[in-house]
Amino acid sequence: MDNLATVPLILVEASPLISLLKLDRFDLLAIFGKPLACTDFVRAEIQRPREKLNEILANGLLQEIPLHNPQHLLEVEKLYARGLGRGEASSIVLSQAEGYGLVMDDKRAQKVAKACKVKFVSTADVVVLNIRHGNISLVEADGFIHQWKALGEFPVSAKTFADLMF
Question: The whole model's pTM is what?
Answer without folding.
Answer: 0.92
